[in-house]
């Protein structure tokens, strides 16, 4: 491929999309068109993490797109492993990660990212949006959490840049990412928070831009509540293995404060008593997102107590 300039700089970018049981053909075609129009050197790599055959068949035609190829995993190894493999397979200096379950909201999506490359930043986060109406109450918890906690302007996110890290839509230097990802291996859902912690620890200069994608792949209420529990477990495991100065994560900060004054056990007991009633609200069509935050705090105290008892 010929090397093109963007505003005087030679830019080469790898767009990396992990896939698991989701249709990506429209997303990839739109990304491809924008990359061609931007006249930069690029590649698009898709990694299928052992999807069902019906989904694989839906995007086989993408093999015909220029500078686009698909690799396949023989077993489902999770998002961290998929992103690591994608980054290792890539050949260019900058990586643009997109989750499969997003849709573009702008015809200038790619150009927006390119405008920040070759500045002083090593990572740029475009953000999430939920600019559509919820169609099914079964997905209300994920939808309202996203609108309340994730759909923030770049100005708001830049006020606490390492707190608002969403890895479903971001660009990062390859060398920076490969240095970070090795410390995230083995983590499950909730690794975005840990990525933010590592970026802050290593003083990586990052920037948040108003370049969101619509997050469309919502979990059901019960699935998302289970993921919130898993995220709390992931955060606690990461914190127990790593020294974390100047904690940015509010949940972890409050938990450690409660633990330091020996109130974590009391919160764990209260959580056991109130868990079912809180769950009833969170699994309803109109969940209270503030209750979800309390649920997460109670769960991390509860989980900490459970794991401590098991190791005695």
> Care to count the β-strands?
12
Integer-rounded radius of gyration: 20 Å
Strand count, sense and closure of the main sheet? 7 strands, mixed
Strand order, main sheet: write it out: 5-4-3-6-10-8-11
User: Can you give the helix content as a percent range?
Assistant: 40-55%
| Strand coverage percent | 15-25%
User: Quick check: average pLDDT?
Assistant: 90
Derived structural class: alpha/beta
The number of helical elements comes to: 12
Uncertain residue ranges = 1-6
Shape, per Cα inertia axes:
globular
Give helix and strand order, one letter per element, not per position.
EEEHEHEHEEHEEHHEHHEEHHHH
- Note the quaternary state here: single chain
Q: Cα distance, first to last residue?
A: 60 Å
What does the model show?
By secondary structure, the protein is of the alpha/beta class. Helix content is 47%, strand content 16%. It contains twelve helices and twelve strands. It has helices at 25-38, 53-58, 79-89, 109-114, 140-150, 154-159, 174-181, 191-201, 221-241, 250-260, 264-282, 289-310, and strands spanning 5-6, 9-10, 12-19, 41-48, 68-72, 94-98, 102-104, 123-125, 128-129, 169-173, 206-208, 213-215. A seven-stranded mixed sheet has the order 5-4-3-6-10-8-11, sandwiched between helices. A three-stranded mixed sheet has the order 7-12-9. A two-stranded antiparallel sheet has the order 1-2. β3, α1 and β4 form a beta-alpha-beta unit. The longest helix is centred in the C-terminal third of the chain and has 22 residues, at 289-310.
